[in-house]
């Protein structure tokens, strides 16, 4: 299903409220939205929970979607604000010893089920975690989704030039973090950069 | 070499990082259906309420086996609303969703206890979850007993906030192996495998809610005996300040939580300070717009002593 087909389907769902139709939209977008949330949050289960919440919000607010931007971009915006709220609430504990797997339950809603998964383990996630959520969001939408500055500009109501500068600054920070994780040595990924 | 070229290498690293595959479609649709049913139930109830207020009505209840039909009639005797209530238990073989099975397990666990659960249906990624049912009480003595001599939850906070309720969580000891769950499910052909988990004897987190006419304030203590440090993030539109509480360093944070359209839907305010002797992090927080930073500081001043 291409983007135009998704747009047409969304128009139908807006009129009919069809959950079956929305299921087809979920099938198309769930993996990219999960990838975004996974990199934003650095935690698999939180990302999976987030994806569910994002689609529920998207469906229940469908009448607000105005087609000024693509539907997928609109869903990304919902995902961004959802992740931003989660990041603000999240308290990351560093236990002693750090690699002890007994990560304490966090202080979300009582008894919220947590699923065992690695947290912030990949070098990329460690580097991304040093960026602000806004910077992370920009990098992910530019790199993974290949969103243009014009579309992002409409989505986040910022000038394209501002977004471009912020993106370049964030990428530089990310690159430096990845290099410093290797003790200042170049990783294989950066061998060609210098 | 141009900068964009060097960024291409970073981009490659991002796109090459493996991402797990997920499938949440059925879970999302189940939850949406559930929410729609609740909304419909509410809508019908609301409509009934309006008609009752406007007309002289009576209701008739009839039973057909396990199904009850409730009718609401207007003055002319015309049926204006009907609700069919199925009271029979679901028959054997009826499919239960992941969330239904999970809720059944949750309801079987007593407060203060924890469990790990593997649910076979609707679980393509074979996720084993764990959870804890916190101890909750409106009796301050119950909450105080859990806190022991580490912290005193007073009956009343500065500003006349009185104790309303509290909850206690312990750290869950996750000494289970996912493979054991898979093996048992395979051998027994059961849909749900549950294992009770132990919890650490000392609390991990206790929260007490206090209220007065302005709203609620929560006093939360977190056990930092095993915590080296904690980190949180604040955005550019949030506020973080160094403040003094009882002569010691503390942090004030104002956090704007936003809705799906980016507008602020809630503002959280909190003061946090550390009790070195007890290895406790203490948070005094509120979401009430009528409770100011100064109110929280006055409460914290009393608690720090």
Sum this structure up briefly.
Chain A is mostly helical and about 190 residues long. Chain A is about 60% helix and about 5% strand.
> What's the mean pLDDT score of chain B?
79
Computed structural class of chain B: alpha+beta
User: Number of helix segments of chain B?
Assistant: 6
Number of strands of chain B: 16
Please bin the fraction of helical residues of chain A: 55-70%
H and E string of chain A: HHHHEEHHHH
Low-confidence stretches of chain A: 91-121, 184-194
Quaternary class = heterodimer
**Overall pLDDT of chain A:** 74
List keywords for this structure.
heterodimer, A: mainly alpha, Arc Repressor Mutant, subunit A, 2 domains, 8 helices, 2 strands, 62% helix, globular, disordered C terminus, B: alpha+beta, nine-stranded antiparallel β-sheet, 6 helices, 16 strands, 28% helix
């Amino acid at each position: 299903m291409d983007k135009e087909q998704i747009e047409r389907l969304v128009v139908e769902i807006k009129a009919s409220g069809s959950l079956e139709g929305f299921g087809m939209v979920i099938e198309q977008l769930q993996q990219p939205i999960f990838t975004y949330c996974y990199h934003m949050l650095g935690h698999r289960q939180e990302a999976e929970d987030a994806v569910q919440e994002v689609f529920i919000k998207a469906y229940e607010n469908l009448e607000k979607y105005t087609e000024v931007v693509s539907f997928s971009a609109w869903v990304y915006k919902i995902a961004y604000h959802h992740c931003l709220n989660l990041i603000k609430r999240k308290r990351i504990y560093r236990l002693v010893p750090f690699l002890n797997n007994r990560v304490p339950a966090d202080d979300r809603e009582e008894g919220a089920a947590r699923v065992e998964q690695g947290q912030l383990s990949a070098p990329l996630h460690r580097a991304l975690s040093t960026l602000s959520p806004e910077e992370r969001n920009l990098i992910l939408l530019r790199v993974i989704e290949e969103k243009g500055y014009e579309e992002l500009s409409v989505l986040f109501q910022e000038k394209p030039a501002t977004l471009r500068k912020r993106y370049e600054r964030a990428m530089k920070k990310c690159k430096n973090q990845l290099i410093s994780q290797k003790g200042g040595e170049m990783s294989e990924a950066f061998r060609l950069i210098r | 070499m141009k900068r964009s070229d060097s960024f291409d290498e970073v981009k490659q690293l991002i796109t090459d990082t493996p991402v797990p595959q997920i499938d949440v479609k059925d879970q999302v649709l189940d939850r949406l259906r559930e929410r729609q049913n609740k909304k419909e139930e509410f809508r019908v109830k609301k409509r009934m309420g309006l008609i009752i207020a406007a007309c002289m009505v009576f209701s008739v209840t009839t039973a057909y086996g396990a199904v009850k039909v409730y009718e609401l009639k207007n003055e002319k005797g015309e049926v204006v609303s009907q609700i069919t209530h199925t009271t029979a238990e679901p028959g054997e073989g009826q499919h239960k969703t992941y969330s239904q099975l999970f809720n059944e397990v949750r309801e079987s666990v007593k407060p203060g206890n924890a469990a790990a659960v593997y649910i076979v249906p609707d679980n393509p990624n074979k996720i084993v979850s764990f959870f804890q049912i916190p101890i909750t009480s409106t009796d301050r003595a119950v909450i105080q007993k859990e806190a022991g001599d580490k912290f005193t939850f007073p009956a009343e906070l500065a500003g006349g906030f009185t104790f309303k309720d509290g909850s206690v969580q312990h750290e869950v000891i996750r000494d289970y192996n996912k493979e054991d769950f898979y093996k048992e499910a395979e051998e027994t052909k059961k849909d749900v495998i549950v294992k009770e988990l132990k919890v650490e004897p000392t609390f991990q987190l206790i929260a007490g809610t206090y209220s007065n006419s302005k709203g609620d304030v929560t006093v939360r203590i977190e056990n930092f005996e095993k915590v080296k440090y904690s980190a949180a993030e604040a955005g550019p539109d949030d506020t973080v300040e160094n403040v003094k509480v009882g002569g010691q360093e503390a942090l004030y944070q104002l956090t704007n939580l936003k809705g799906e359209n980016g507008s602020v839907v809630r503002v959280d305010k909190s003061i946090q300070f550390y009790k070195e002797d007890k290895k406790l992090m203490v948070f005094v927080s509120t979401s009430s717009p009528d409770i100011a930073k100064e109110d929280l500081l006055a409460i914290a001043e009393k608690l720090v002593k």
